[in-house]
Amino acid sequence: MTESCISCGMPLRIPEDYAKGDVTKAYCQYCAQPDGNMKSYEEVLSGMVGFLQHTQGIDVNVAISMAKQMLSNLPAWKHLS
Amino acid sequence: MSNLLRTEQKLQTREKILIQTIHLFAKQGIQRTKTTDIAHASAVSHGTIFVHFKTRDVLVKESIEKIGKTITDRLHALTQGKNSLQEILKAHLLSIQENENIYRCLLLEGPSLPTECRTVWVGIQSAISFYISTALLQEIEKGTLRLMVPSLLFNTWIGLVHHYLANQDLFAPNKSVLSHHGDKLIHYFLELVAPLMKG
Question: Can you give the pTM of this predicted structure?
Fold first, then answer.
């Protein structure tokens, strides 16, 4: 089993954490489109910015910068750095 | 020596260096810990540190990531089957208490660390906030709490906790701040939000 989502880093602990509950996928439910394919970089970035703002109320420009940095370390997006 | 054995040894050395780094950070602070200290504590040559970690900043960042994972994994384990805000706050404090010294270092020295490390710290806090927000939303749905902005609730709580942690010398000199004051902080915080819970 994959330990964390290759797109956002979220821990993958139980089947429900995985995209469409499929433990063979390497990404999480939040990084999956309705058809089960992985979201685009822009969609994941937007989601992560929203997450940082929702959980800590961080300034949007700071959240964008930090989200980009977080994603740049993840397997799905490293190649874009 | 076979390649497999060599790889395994490399991983073990890497892990040993990370563990000793965290131990030294907790003991003497991040900025004050030199890579020579880490090499000595890990029983490796100074050069070996840089075989495994390109720069000191990379070692610091990976150490913080390891600490963050320890805390968030522990928090996840402690919150299983727990739903109330009180239970989640208790789990939060316990997950920090078990790593209190190193957490305090990150809290105090975070602003002066490289940006990459700051990002890891923010990620840790967001993960913690997510658990607290989830409990908050469940209580709002049950009608036991009024609608509140999750980030403000979290920032109020973490502000209180961090104030006590940052000022250990005032609140619990040479002791665990959270074991001494944790229950009181939870009780007081819930009292603060309690008026919002009534009718």
Answer: 0.89
Interface A:B, Cβ pairs < 8 A: 42
Specify the DSSP class assigned to residue B80.
Answer: T
Residues lower than pLDDT 70 in chain A: 1-2
For residue A71, the chain B residues in CB contact (below 8 A) are none
The helix/strand/coil state of B199 is coil
Closest-CA residue of chain B to A57: B151
B73 to chain A, any CB pair closer than 8 A? The answer is yes
Chain B residues inside the 8 Å CB shell of A11: 72-73, 76
**DSSP state letters, B12-71:** HHHHHHHHHHHHHHHHH-STT--HHHHHHHHTS-HHHHHHHSSSHHHHHHHHHHHHHHHH
| Shortest Cα distance, chain B CAs vs residue A37, angstroms | 25
Q: Are B147 and B140 in contact (CB under 8 A)?
A: yes
CB distance A57–B73 less than 8 Å? Answer: no
The Cα-based distances of B180 to B158, B168, B174, B191 in angstroms read 17, 11, 11, 19
pLDDT per residue as tens digits for the range B82-116: 889 999 999 999 999 999 999 999 999 999 999 88
Q: Which residue of A has its CA nearest to B133?
A: A55
For residue B7, is it left (φ>0), alpha (ψ between -120 and 50) or beta? alpha
> How much is the ipTM here?
0.84
- Tens digit of pLDDT for each residue in B183-199? 999 999 988 887 554 44
